[in-house]
Amino acid sequence: MQKKTLTKEQALQKLHQYCAYQERSHFEVQQKLWEMGVSRADHDEVISSLIEDNYLNEERFAIQFAGGKFRMKDWGRKKIWYALKEKKVSDYCIKKALNAIDEETYEKTLQSLAEKKYDSLKGEQYLVRRKKTTDYLLQKGFEPDLINKALTSLGE
């Protein structure tokens, strides 16, 4: 069965809705264009049109993505950085997005996660508790030096 292809205008209409629903990266829109069967020659034109109409803004996407992952999933900067890299976001936009995360809130979140995890390991030996807590926070994407600072302030 032949895959249905859309014209540039039809694709643009669908992508307006796709981008209005939530912020998207250029890469996600590119993938969507492939799925829709839009000819390769029209990709750049469609993306340019979306940027001009302010439906697509990589910087806005990166800031919203970073803020959302930090607030909702308690991700650290490293994990957010890798996730944005995966979505092919530019280094400039990634840096801007990570700088948009409030430093004080970031450290409070890290401290709170460290305390919760550490307390949940009550039966374990000190070093095991510390190691498991560190591993958990590293997996969440927090920086090793900040993790050490947070664990030191737990006062053991």
From TrEMBL:
Domain RecX third three-helical, chain residue ranges per copy: 108-151
Gene3D superfamilies the record matches: Winged helix-like DNA-binding domain superfamily/Winged helix DNA-binding domain
Gene Ontology cellular component terms for the protein in this record: cytoplasm
InterPro entries cross-referenced by the UniProt entry: RecX_HTH_2nd (IPR053924), RecX_HTH_3rd (IPR053925), Regulatory_RecX (IPR003783), WH-like_DNA-bd_sf (IPR036388)
GO biological process annotation, one example: regulation of DNA repair
Pfam families registered for this protein in UniProt: RecX_HTH2 (PF02631), RecX_HTH3 (PF21981)
UniProt entry keywords in alphabetical sequence: Cytoplasm
Cellular compartments annotated: Cytoplasm
Domain called RecX second three-helical: residue spans: 57-98
Function: Modulates RecA activity.
Family in the record: Belongs to the RecX family.
Protein name: Regulatory protein RecX
Organism of derivation: Paraflavisolibacter caeni
